[in-house]
Amino acid sequence: MLVVTGCKKFLDQPVPGALPEEDFYKTDLDATQAVTAIYDMMQAHYNNNWGSLYMIKTLLSDESNTGGGDAGDQPGYQTIDKYNFDATNDKIRDAWRMLYFTIYRANKVINKTKPETNLRKRLIAEAKALRAYNYFELMSLWGDVPLVLDDIDPSNYTKTERKSKTAVNDQIEKDLQDAIVLLPLKNSYSTADKFRVSKGMAQALLGKVYLYEQKCDEAAPQFETVINSGQYGLAPSVSAAFSKNFEFGIESVFEISYTTDRSYDWSNFPWSAQPESNIHIQLMGPRSDYYTKAPGDSLLGGWGFNLPRKSLWNAFVSAGDAERRRQTIMSKDELIAMGGNWTNDNAWGFEGYFQRKYGSFSTQTGGPINELNYGTNWRMIRFADVLLMAAESNYRANNETKARQYLNMVRKRSGLPDITASGNALFDAIIKERQMELAFEGFRFTDLVRWGLAQKELAPLGYQSKHALLPIPDYDIKTGKLTQNPGF
Amino acid sequence: MKLFTVLLFFGLFQVCAPDSIGQTITIRVKQTEIRKVLNAVENQTNVRFLYNYELKALKNKIDFTVIDLPVCEALDKLFQNSGLTYKKVNENLFAVLSEIADENKWIRVTGKVTGENNEPLNSVSVIEKGRTNGCLTNFDGVFSLTVAPNAILQTSYIGYDKNEAPINDQLVINIKLKPAVAKLNEVLVVGYDREKKSMTTGAISSIKQQQLETVSSTRIEQALQGRAAGVLVLPTSGQPGATINMRIRGAGSNRNSNPLFIVDGVRASGIEYLDPSEIASIDILKDAASAAIYGAEAANGVVIITTKTGKKNSGEVSYSGQYAEQSLKKDFIKMMNAQEYQQYLQEAGIANAPTSSDLVGIGTGTNWLDAVLQTVPQQHHSLQFSGGSDKGTYMIAGTYFSQEGIIGKNKSRFDRYTVRFNGDHRVKSWLNIGNRFSYSNFKRRAISENDEFNSIITNALVMDPITPTTYTGNYPPHVLNALTSFTPDSVPVASLLRRDAAGNLYGISNYLKGEFGNPVERIELAKGETVYNKILGNVFIDIEPMQGLTITSRIGVDASFQTTHGWTPTYWFSSERLNSVAGGYDASNNWYTWQWENFGTYKKIVGAHNFTLLGGMSAIKTHEFHVGGSYSGLFKEDDRFSYADYVPDNIDRIGSTALDYSLASVFGRLSYAYKEKYLFSGSLRRDGSSKLAPGHQWKTYPAVAAGWVASNEDYFPKFLSFVNYAKLRASWGQNGNVSSVGVGEWMSAIGSGIVYPNANGNLLVGAAPGNLPNPNLTWETSEQFDIGTDLSFLSNKFTLSIDYYKKITKDLLTNGTAPMFVGNVLKTVNAGNVENKGWEFEAVYADKLASGFSYEIGANLSTLHNVITYLDPNSPIIYGAGIGVGWNATAMQVGYPVWYFNGYKTDGIFQTQADIDSYLTKTGIQLYNPKPGEPIVIDVNGDKQISPADMTYIGNPHPDLVYGGHANIYYKGFDLLIFIQGQSGNDILMGFNRLDRATANKPEFFFTNRWVGTGSTNTWFASDASNPYIYNSDLMIFEGSFTRIRQLQLGYTLSKTLSDRFKIKRARVYVSLDDYFTFTNYPGMDPEGGSNAQNSIGIDRGGYPIPRKMIAGLNFSF
User: Fold this and answer.
1) Does residue B474 contact residue B504 with C-beta atoms inside 8 Å?
2) Which pLDDT belongs to residue A1?
3) Which of B769, B777, B774, B725 is nearest to B749 (CA)?
4) Whole-angstrom Cα distance, residue A74 to residue A69?
5) What percent of chain B has pLDDT over 90?
6) B372, B659, B840, B904: which could join B1033 in a potential S-S bond, CB 3.0 to 4.6 Å?
7) How far apart are the first and last CA of chain A?
8) Which of A17, A136, A95, A56 is nearest to A306 (CA)?
């Protein structure tokens, strides 16, 4: 008996750095940390392991070419751009994975935290809004998806089926409605807490969900509430909205936060883990091999991904949209005129232009190594987008006056004349406006799909109808026995 | 009969001389057997009796009373009318005889068994030839046994040749044994015991000190290479101090496939700290039954290493030393020269490629491998003092080994010092104590290798030949441009560019950028060093409380302390690879393991039945502590300022962690032999590990084995008289592998390390479960069946062992594969089964001719078949290692070998556009637009497109045949040793050609073999540097077979007369060519290189080649 107890004790060794799950999710601090972990996963999601959902959404559109060193650089991104990806694409797989990993963390908070204090109630509401956000991404890109709201027992790994878009939408709406009640207005948060989802974020997202569902009567009031909440406005310019000064600023409805302060250098950068800086900004800088920065400019060299297509440049030019164009795209000629240089017109994916929206600006990075310390936040929902979605919902709800009003608010900021059109022409103007205002923000592709314009706009680039939805990753087809989307 | 008459003769004249003893006795007993009375006499005096226990009269009960009577008188009284008589043999020894003459032919003899130096040998079995009676010697080597007067005593002891001693008139027979010469009498060290090869039921390969003495390699694992069938030694690299992987009977585990190392009875975490000169023997337990006594960790086999001890009654000083020059065969791999490189890239249509005008005046350009290769020394010295008395032995040894690298010289260096003290002391006749203790210190500097992204060696392979090592004349435009430009951090590039010792700027590539940089400069920049201090040893007590029973208690310690220090200077190779702030790093890693074992062995001979019973317990606990940190902004770029304390940086990053894990075990084994004909052994071990969830911590490992020595049967046919020995054996058993499980991997625990910047940029702490729980996690179990035979022919000149085995590793531990929608990772699961099976042959022929010419020829060969037989249906494919960006180059799948190569399958080269059109029409493949000169890619899954889903099995990294052979020839002091080793049937994936770095240089045969137009070749493609259907396909798979002459050694041993004159015991000088000649068709780096990670076996990412060595050495002892 003594030996048995002795052995038991001998084999009872502590696991360092690991708290059993049943001892967590109990206090306010636990809940706060558990919610921070959800934000953290979203941060990784848009930046992790060269599988950024931002890149996937952008490359699926007609805005840019993959670029990079050559055709073999990041083949996963290259194939998405060329629409010859399949269900084994690593980027699509990782994006899917990170969405569900974020949902997992949100589920833990929602199911395990007891709403005993106001703080915990708010935190649960944050978790619900974040869960809704991630399901919205899933549903809009993959269609029917597994609706995971709690832990899945291993015996159910292969029995969890995809749920219809309607069912997913219902859950998203429910989560957001719950959250809206409990979430504070953005300005009720302290300056430091402004990164948190607020009532306005949940309402804007709910409006977007309705808009995607074409429930425009319901969408418009949500946007209306956000617009009239007094919490938001437009930054002086598009480039200002994307500047460091305006992070979590007046135009910001929802952002994912990164920092310039980690002092990453070449030897300590966590390549295989999750950096707190935004390395994708470096990935998207003009390829340094051929690029010489203009003396007065702050756009640093990078690795040459996400190169604007000439068609987008042309769209700006034909729309007479010069100010906003300059804040979004720079041409090689402009670069040279400013005193910079570009030495390789045949660089892979290069059509003569550089992207400046999420630019590799020296003002947005830190030391000791600029390349590794970009703190640029991803703008997930900004007020200009809310205005444009409000314009669209109002247009669809037959309230053209309001539609024009919101549309022109956005145009005015960029010094563009008011739109006076109505009917189809007004809708075309909204489409155009979204293309210009939201270029390189990852919305164009899902917009084209929901408008039914994807075939028309993207077919010349290789798009086929099956590409309206991404393939369910082969990994989950095999391990989870999910059904595949048609055509993959 | 003769003895009997002699005794009678004594008896007639000398019964009991009155003066003989002068001792008196007092005995009062009733109804007591005479033999008990004799015992009482023995107890009171120093008189001893010799008698046959079988004499009936001894058991007669009598009443007997003597008071203070002289011995002789008492004896006369005792034997009166007893039917017995007695005779004096010498002063205190009396023989008791029966009056019935016939009974007296049995006699009790005693004696002492000793070894070479007259040291007593314990537990030697002594039996009477032709009968079934036997006994074991005690600690003093003393035995006594009742035998027929004409008996012959057969003495057998492991490690010594059998001895037969006729009794011939003697009652006291001292026997001196000679150390074993015949292979069959070799000692095998098995778990917690030793066995004679002829009596083992296991598949055990043994390598002895004598074999290791001529080995010039300085790593034991290397010394094992090619010496034992079924044992595969995989050097991860030719770099000084690189780790070596060992596989016994194939790759079983998906994770750690290295065997369990037992050094002097104690588990060791590795054996790199041992010097071959310290080793007495290495025994490799290959079959499950032999290894099963080590249960939980023996699934990959067990390597038992026994270090040297002193010999009793001797004293010896010995020295061995060698000096070697290491080099590499010229053009061991040929890359394209500048002209070929330029032409190739131009033909391939690569952007930013050089033009012919860039070639002006540079000829064939820079041969980067030549530029980094050097001829460098290696030396090894060992000094040993050993010896002992009857009471104990000692061995004190010190060794020094130093090796510089053929690439990187001082930046790739290994220095090792070891000190050893082994002692044994006999405190009492029943008590032995001893220790095995070693301290080692080694220092390693390494340059990066075997990494297609960023290693120095890969850089030296693929750096463009147009760039010079340094600039001695004018700078090209891109360098002039760099000299005037700034980094994104506004640091002038000129301040980051480096110069060689002569002040010349290092060459900067204008073509190959990304991670790459001038390899000569990169070697210069390498500033890192790891120092290990290791203490390994044990103390033990052996107690023999009664005849045949030995109890051992042993406490072992394995403590390793490792510190790493290094720093990164500033540099600039391109805008993509630069460092504008010098930084340093430090790490300290400590492992501390103690092990306590108690076990008892009881040996008993009952007639012809020979039993050995073993039982014991073991407890092992490991504590790990790791701390590391980094800092940047060195005040001066200098070693002196490379530590954190001298850095004006307020953000020192530090990390640390500590781990504890333990293993508790009980074990037992019964071995039984009948008349050295029938052998049986069964063992059971039960282990508990702290690494698993409560309720799943314990597991039991059984094993059984049986053997039949046919040649010992009386009916063994006469016509087979050339067969001296023939044994058949079979075994089955189970073993575990728990070392592959990480601490706490089964639990879903909340971890930290999660941070998120708030809106002010301050980091908030987050927490979430790190992984999904898997409380059912259990250890890997390997189940193995083995059938084999050991044979000896032609007066034991020729020995042969053959084995067939089948090993199934069940519950293979691997990273889990939960569907991703579950939302977290499943760290470790038991995913499937892998089967290894094969044949093993070991043969040796040795002979000594009358002319003084002697020789030994040996060979071993093993076949291997490795296949995954089962995988969790939830994860029908598991991907392993990647190459470059995005290629899953290895995978596991049912029906295929572990970590097979996964890629596109091709079928020749498209010759014309018409070929392409007809192929596409025939197959219906869409969206695939190859050009003539590109490979024909197969649509494996038939979905009418070429996509990554078409990647499939394209090669097997495991050899199906591994062999080794040696020939040793001796003549008049001269000896010639030849040792070869090789393998065949494995594929190598040439993985250093990255798809996404089109301007990287390629092997020259890419150029010379290329497709240059219709009909030029159907096996190699046109110039191309970025096509995944080429670089991720079977075109990168090459046959990996090789044969290497590991050793070609000529030695001379001083003749006895000369040695005696110099008062030297033995002296030998030799010269040797090691790893000098390699025969292979593999056109890449080294056919042996590149096996660093489990799932990356057989991928050549540009590993450090194995140097060839020219060695001169000297051994002497006095």
Assistant:
1) no
2) 40
3) B769
4) 9
5) 48
6) B904
7) 62
8) A56
Which chain A residues have a beta carbon less than 8 Å from that of B753? 17
Mark yes or no for CB contact A482/B747 under 8 Å.
no
Question: Is pLDDT of B1 > 50?
Answer: no
Instruction: Give the range with max mean pLDDT: A252-256, A362-366, B509-513.
Output: A252-256
Distances (CA, A) of B579 to A186, A368, B376, B514: 41, 9, 31, 13
- For B185, phi and psi rounded to 5 degrees? -95, 0
Checking if the pLDDT of B17 tops 70, the result is no
Separation between Cα atoms, residue B46 and residue B23, nearest integer Å? 9
Chain-wide mean pLDDT for chain A? Answer: 93
Mean pLDDT of chain B: 87
* Beta-bridge mates of residue B564: B530, B587
CA distance A182 to A202: 10
| B263 contacts B275 by C-beta, under 8 angstroms | no
Contacts of B576 in chain A (CB under 8 A): 288-289, 303
Give the model's pLDDT for residue B777. Answer: 86
Cβ neighbours of B664 in A, within 8 Å? 7, 10-11
**pLDDT tops 50 at residue B12:** no
Which residues between 432 and 461 in chain A have a beta carbon less than 8 angstroms from any beta carbon of chain B? none
Q: Under an 8 A CB cutoff, do A88 and B948 touch?
A: yes
Enumerate residues 6+ apart whose C-beta is below 8 A from B919: B910, B925, B936
Q: What is the pLDDT of residue B6?
A: 40
Q: For an interface test with B, which of A104, A137, A291, A479 has the most B Cβ atoms less than 10 Å from its Cβ?
A: A479
Task: Kindly write down the DSSP assignment for every residue of B794-830, as one continuous string.
Answer: TTTTEEEEEEEEEEEEES-EEE----GGG-S---EEE
DSSP category for residue B228: S
B696, B821, B927: best to mutate for the A interface, most A CBs within 10 A: B821
**What ipTM was estimated for this complex?**
0.95
Residues linked to residue B960 through DSSP beta bridges, in sequence order: none
Tell me which residues of chain B, numbers 733 to 792, contact chain A at a CB-CB cutoff of 8 Å: 743-744, 747-770, 773
Tokens of A342: 């570009």
Contacts of B131-137 with C-beta under 8 Å, sequence gap 24+, read B132/B607, B132/B608, B132/B675, B133/B607, B134/B605, B134/B607, B134/B608, B134/B610, B135/B547, B135/B605, B136/B547, B136/B548, B136/B603, B136/B605, B137/B112, B137/B113
Classify residue B839 by burial, with Cβ atoms within 10 Å: 0-12, 13-18, 19+: middle
The pair of structure tokens assigned to A479 is 């391990």
Query: What would the DSSP string read from start to end of B947-988?
Result: SGGG-EEEE--S-SEEEEEEEEEEETTEEEEEEEEEEES-EE
Phi, psi of B472 (to 5 degrees): -110, -20
**pLDDT tier for residue B1090 given thresholds of 50, 70 and 90:** low
pLDDT higher than threshold 90 for residue B311: no
Q: What is the mean predicted confidence (pLDDT) over B241-246?
A: 83
Report residue B5's pLDDT band, with 50, 70 and 90 as the boundaries. Answer: very low
Which DSSP category does B1102 fall into? S
| Whether residue A368 has a cis bond before it, omega within 30° of 0 | yes
The nearest CA of chain B is from the CA of A402 a distance in Å of 33
| Six-digit token string for A88 | 């084994």
* Strand B877-879 to B882-883 pairing: unpaired
pLDDT of residue A2: 46
Q: How many angstroms separate the CA of residue A135 from the nearest CA in chain B?
A: 11
Look at residue B1062 and tell me whether its pLDDT is greater than 50. yes
Task: Assess whether pLDDT exceeds 50 at residue B324.
Answer: yes
- Provide mean pLDDT across the span A368-388: 94
Distance CA B718, CA B708 (A): 18
Is pLDDT above 90 for B881?
no
Contacts of A294 in chain B (CB under 8 A): none
Do residues A382 and A264 touch, judged by C-beta distance below 8 A?
A: no
